[in-house]
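Justification of resources, computational component.

The compute hours requested in this renewal are based largely on the per-chain cost of generating structure records like the one below. Each record pairs the submitted sequence with a full structure-token output. That output is archived, and it is also reused by downstream analysis tasks.
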Amino acid sequence: MSLIPFDDRDGVIWFDGKLIPWRDAKIHVLSHGLHYGSSVFEGVRSYGGRVFKAREHTERLLASAQMLGFEVPFATDVIDQATRDVLEGNGITDGYIRPVAWRGSEVMGVAAKQSKIHLAIAAWVWPSYFTAEARMRGIRLNISKWARPSPQTAPTAAKCAGLYMICTLSKHAAEDEGYEDSLMYDYRGFIAEATGANVFLVIDGKIHTPEPDCFLDGITRKTTIELARARGIEVIVRHIMPEELAKASEVFVTGTAAEITPVREIGPYSFTPAQITAQLIEDYTQFVNS
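The structure output for this chain reads:
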């Protein structure tokens, strides 16, 4: 199957305040964001033309930028409207939206406070993050050799480009070994997350999920916790050791792209997607389409 490059498509992208032709949305090769990782982004979904948790995503984008020491030069309401304009301009109802902000090319060097801050928003039709077949039977994860870093070494609460380098390395290694994704531990050896999704374990009828103190506290993660508690299912947020996977009967991951996806295998551990996972998938699907 041939890929359709993301730089050669029909449509429009919102770029620094206006919609422009998709192929014209370009940056210079000496942009600071490319060389030094001074870039933040969001992954957002639309269902039936409605942007899911639009304000939460916009606020997180702005907060991530502040953690990287810069301010996005557009107000929250402007960004929210721009997101709607991009969907309408591309004729998308069910899709994926990617806002991204970065330092420009005015200064080339580690220190770049005088660089212009840019913002672009693109959207496209989005298939399942994992194939339908893999999702229904549960995906397989290996164990990454890379660990989520300490908050003292990186702005781990930000959704910034640089923090995803080890995710790409981990996912590529997993795919090379025949897995769909990879489970990452944190710098202390606790279970952290998958490469682009948060992790949940079902143990004795209760849901356990890692404390997000050195990785992203996902918006889908928060939604899933709310849905589970609304069902009367106890959710425990805590540090989880890898060997506790042996106690789990069900495991699933959550994220904007992954939504709620069952897991059937992590390294030497096997799980069977069952009632709790199925119920939350149903509840989430109803919630995002309501």
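Residues 34 and 231 are 44 Å apart (CA to CA). The longest helix spans residues 76-90.
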